[in-house]
User: Which sequence fits this backbone?
């Protein structure tokens, strides 16, 4: 009799273990998915194109050869613009970890423009338009965005800039790409979201000269 009781107890334990395992798997299936991962970026190039002379293009680059590795994007040189000049700023953003399959991250940003926004800061007085110091701090600063997502919120793959007309400016220029995917299906990027919402894909500061 004792042997039979032991067998019955073992069967009950096995049934309970199986039930707990099934419940655990079910809980895993119901768990919310992870947030979108940050983009893998190996190089960022800022292109300031002179609106009066499209052949006049000023570039500034940051490079990170190991992508997701320990190293971060490293700024290569500064930005030197002409005074009293109108420029359009665009970006070339690449993932070239695989030289045979280079990814244009700009296309991904365009496809997911409701989850991305560029923010900028710069030395006060460097530009006649936009004036001020940008929209990283304070968040209400003006930027001349040329593009919007489907919700009417700015993106920043293209922006307009007019350098100051007089004097020589030596300062800094920061470009920050913020990744703002929804959290629990609630949008993070809105008409009032700032550079503190979401996580930065990159945050690059260049020396700036205008003369």
Assistant:
């Amino acid at each position: 009799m004792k042997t039979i009781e032991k067998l019955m107890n073992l069967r009950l334990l096995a049934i309970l273990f199986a039930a707990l395992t099934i419940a655990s798997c079910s809980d895993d299936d119901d768990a919310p998915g992870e947030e979108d991962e940050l983009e893998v970026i190996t190089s960022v190039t800022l292109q300031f194109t002179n609106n009066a002379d499209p052949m006049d293009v000023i570039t500034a680059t940051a490079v990170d050869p190991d992508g997701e590795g320990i190293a971060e994007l490293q700024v290569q040189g500064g930005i030197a613009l002409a005074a009293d000049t109108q420029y359009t700023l665009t970006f070339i953003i690449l993932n070239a970890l695989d030289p045979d399959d280079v990814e244009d991250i700009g296309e991904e940003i365009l496809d997911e423009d409701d989850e991305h926004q560029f923010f900028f800061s710069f030395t006060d007085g460097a530009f006649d338009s936009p004036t001020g110091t940008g929209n990283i701090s304070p968040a209400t600063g003006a930027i001349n965005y040329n593009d919007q997502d489907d919700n009417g919120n700015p993106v920043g793959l293209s922006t307009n800039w007019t350098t100051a007309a007089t004097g020589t400016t030596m300062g800094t220029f920061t470009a920050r790409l913020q990744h703002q995917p929804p959290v629990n299906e609630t949008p993070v990027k809105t008409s009032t979201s700032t550079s503190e919402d979401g996580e930065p894909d990159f945050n690059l500061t260049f020396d700036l000269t205008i003369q």
Notes: The chain has two helices and twelve strands. Residues 1-31 form one domain. The mean pLDDT is 86.
